[in-house]
Amino acid sequence: MPTPVTGKHNLHSLYGYSRPLGVECTACGHRALAFGGRLDDFKGNMRELRTLRFTCSACGSRAWRGWLFVGNEAEAWLEGLTVSPVGGGGPTF
Ligand SMILES: [Zn+2]
After folding, report:
1. Which of 6, 9, 5, 13 is nearest to 67 (CA)?
2. Is the pTM higher than 0.90?
3. What residue spans define the domains of the chain?
């Protein structure tokens, strides 16, 4: 299962996972992967992931939820094959 981003995760955590950051729009459910080619730049960077700013390309919302992946989880997540454990009963994509 993908790991939900919390206050304990920072850019260095992302570097440690060696996978792109999953960004899910909490307004419309649009999903994307961020920083796939830049992970090496984040070694030692303690900026908290939740303070990053993203704007949804589908609906313009800036409310997002982050996910961390291992193995090939990112690809499955993008295709909507995993169910969010914290979705609050909303539709899954
Ligand atoms: Zn959206």
Report:
1. 5
2. no
3. 3-78
